[in-house]
Structure formats: C-alpha cells, structure tokens
Write a structure and sequence with these properties.
Part of the ABC transporter complex hrt involved in hemin import. Responsible for the translocation of the substrate across the membrane. This is Putative hemin transport system permease protein HrtB. Keywords: Cell membrane, Membrane, Transmembrane, Transmembrane helix. InterPro entries: ABC-4/HrtB_transporter, ABC3_permease_C. Pfam families: FtsX. This protein is α+β, with helices and mostly antiparallel strands. It folds into 2 domains: 181 residues, no CATH class; 152 residues, no CATH class. Helices cover 57% and strands 15% of the residues. It contains 14 helices and 13 strands. Strands 1, 3, 4, 5, 6, 7, 8, 9, 10, 12 and 13 form an 11-stranded mixed β-sheet that branches. A two-stranded antiparallel sheet has the order 2-11. The radius of gyration is 30 Å and the shape is elongated. The relative contact order is 0.19.
C-alpha cells in the first residue's frame, strides 16, 4: 500500500481526534501569523510613519502625544504655537523644509487636517499622483485619504460640514459645554467643505485623514487676526542630522514650545507596543505546548491500534524506514494540515480585520505576503510534530511482532 494512502486512512479512522489535533495546530499557527502581521505593520508604520521630518515642533507636553497626533492622527494635540514661529523656523539655516499643520476638527470621526500642499510632494514624492481629482487650492477645498473615501463612500464633488473635536460627536455629546462652544459648533455646521480630490493608498495614517488648506482652522474658528493666528505643529525636514540637533536645541528652549526628535518619540511608542506583543507571546507559547500535547495524545491513543499494523508491516518485510515513516508520518501529516490551515486562517483574519485595526490604531496590516518569521514558523511547527510523534512511534516499534500475534 502507498505510504501516503496508509497515513491518510489512519487519520480518517479517528476523525474526531484528528480534527481536534488539526484545529489546535491551526489556531496556534493562526495566532502566531496574526502577531507577525501586527509586528510587521508596526515596523513598517514606524519606518514610514513620519517620512523625512526628523524634528517636530509643537506646544509643551508629551513628546509621544505630539508625534502620535501629528503623524498618526491619534489622540489630541498638545496645544498650539504661534503662526509667526513658522517663518522663524523656515529662516533657520539648518532647515531644509518646514510645514505647518492645524487640526482639531473631524468629519464622522476622521480628523480634518490643515496642511500646506507641498507637504505631499516632500513626503511622498512625484510618483504619488491623485487617485481622483486634484490637490486643494482655496479655502474649503479638501482631499480625502483612500481609507476615508472607502469607508464613507465619498467622491469628488461631494460636500460636507465638519464638527469640532477629534472624535465624532465630541461637542454634540457634551451636555455641559458652554454657550460659546455651542456657537462655535453652529459655525462648524455653517462652514462647507468641497472634496476636490481623493488620495491614492499611501500605506500610512494619512489614508485615514481629510486634508484641507492651513487657514481652515482660522476661518472656522473666526480667528483672522495675524497676530493671534495659531498652528498645531511644525513638521521640520533638516538639511543634516547635525542640523536636526541644533534645531531641537534652539526651539526646545523657547517658552511653551517643545522640539522633539520624531524618530525617538516613535521608537518609544513602538517599545511600549512591543511589551504588549511580548505578553501575547506568552499566550502563544502556551498554545504551542497545548498543540504539541494534542498531537502527542492523538498518537498515544492510536498506539494500541498501530501495534498490530506495525507487526504486520514488519512480518511482510517492509523496510524499517517505511515502518518508521508510517508511525511518525501520521503526526507530521496532522501537523502539516493544521499548519496550512493556520497560515490561511491567520492571513485571512488579518485581511478581514485590516480596516477595523487601521481605523482604531492606524496600524497597516498587509496580508497575503511572505514574512521572514513565517519560514521559522513552518520549520518549528513541523519539528514539533516530529518530536511529538517520536515517543508513541518508538513505543509501537519496540513490540515484538511474533509475540504480538501469538497473544
């Protein structure tokens, strides 16, 4: 009998136990794959999350909060800085490019960001053309990220009104807001945005933001006086790394202003996330041991049945290698089926949850591509299957076939 056919018949002979074994392996592998996808998303997000802007200038407060709000559109800004500071930064000899950003409003929970148009050219280059329409030119014009357009079904030519705050209904749901805030909310509803373009997928958090002219915040909040104009953040591309240090030192010493190394702030966030991933890894290790135990129990349960099969194979003259592969192969086959199922489930789960994960955390999950850790996962899983199969196989092989049939 063909070895593969023999293994397959053995597996089907105990359908329930085989199915449970395959499921335990599949769930474990799927969990590991999902963790790998998240880890890959974190690394790529950290790498591409802030582009060439090595220094970020904003109001005093948490450096990580400033970085998250500016580049990942998560959380609230640390405050505002004077608009006049932008001209001072741009005149600095160490600065290559500097762009101001204003934020604080939303549309259906997606942040509305005031940003100078040249930001897109500096960060994404000339190879990223608009998916539809064009870049904004005047007050009220907006372009929307690909994720926003997909989620809300927006098209070029659509119009909408924003709301104050970075969370949907932030003002409307606050029963204790002051009359001035109520008036500001009314003014938000009177200001109409016109969508003139839709961005292509950029694979950054900009995919879930709405961009418009820098002066939208001053128009919406009725702040047209040049002396009192404020901006949320200044994104700085230094000419050199040494220049980045001088920029940080110079503007970090100003009152109510902080200048941060963007990479360090992002790295701090990644380190915190890594600690959470390590905690999940403990759960994963437990699942791995449970899967190995499931394989072991499945084969131990079949030992008595296999003893007669092994004895017969040895009596009819089958080679030792054939007999050994017939014993170990069953555990490896169950492991292999569970491995394939786990890889598919893990990538499918990442694909199906990518929109929810991205909207909640700004983390891009890219499924259906090979990750370096997957090679080790495949080898490790198959090795666990082999190791778990050796004990029961050895127990069955040691039986004297003649004594077995005499009994």
């Amino acid at each position: 009998m063909n070895l593969i056919s023999l293994l397959w018949r053995n597996v089907l002979h105990r359908k329930t136990l085989s199915l449970l074994t395959v499921m335990s392996v599949a769930v474990t592998v799927a969990l590991v794959v999902f963790l790998l996808l998240c880890s890959d998303g974190i690394e790529k997000g950290a790498e591409k999350g802030y582009g060439p802007f090595e220094v970020t200038i904003g109001a005093k407060g948490s450096a990580t909060q400033l970085a998250l709000n500016t580049y990942y559109h998560i959380g609230s800004p640390t405050g505002n800085v004077p608009f006049t500071l932008l001209d001072e930064v741009r005149k600095d000899a160490a600065v290559d490019k500097a762009f101001a950003m204003t934020t604080g409003d939303n549309y259906n929970g997606f942040p509305i960001v005031g940003m100078e148009v040249d930001y897109f050219l500096t960060r994404y280059g000339t190879d990223k053309h608009m998916a539809q329409g064009k870049l904004y030119e005047k007050l009220g014009d907006t372009i929307v990220g690909s994720h926003v357009a997909s989620e809300l079904g927006l098209h070029v030519g659509d119009k909408f009104q924003g709301a104050h705050g970075l969370v949907k209904g932030a003002v409307d749901d606050d029963e204790d807001h002051h009359e001035g805030e109520a008036g500001e909310a009314d003014h938000h509803h009177q200001f109409t945005y016109n969508i003139v373009g839709i961005l292509p997928p950029l694979l950054t958090s900009d995919d879930r933001a709405i961009f418009t002219t820098l002066d939208y915040a001053w128009a919406v909040h009725e702040n047209q006086q040049s002396a009192s104009k404020e901006i949320t953040t200044i994104l700085v591309k230094p000419k050199t790394l040494l220049g980045a240090q001088s920029i940080k030192t110079k503007y970090g010493q100003m009152n109510n202003v902080q200048a941060i190394y963007t990479s360090k702030a992002v790295a701090d966030v990644v380190n915190v996330v890594d600690k959470g991933t390590q905690a999940l890894s403990v759960v994963t290790v437990i699942c791995i041991f449970l899967a190995a135990g499931s394989i072991l129990l499945s084969l131990i349960a079949a030992v008595n049945e296999r003893k007669k099969d092994v004895g017969l194979l040895r009596l009819i003259g089958k080679s030792k290698s054939y007999v050994w592969f017939s014993l170990i192969g069953e555990g490896v086959l169950l492991t292999f089926i569970g491995l394939i199922g786990g890889l598919v489930i893990g990538h499918a789960g990442g694909y199906l949850s990518r929109e929810a994960v991205f909207e909640y955390s700004g983390l891009q999950i890219q499924s259906w591509h090979y990750m370096p850790g997957e090679g080790w996962l495949v080898l490790g899983t198959l090795l666990i299957g082999v190791v778990a199969s050796i004990g029961p196989a050895l127990q069955a092989y040691r039986v004297d076939p003649l004594q077995l049939f005499k009994s």
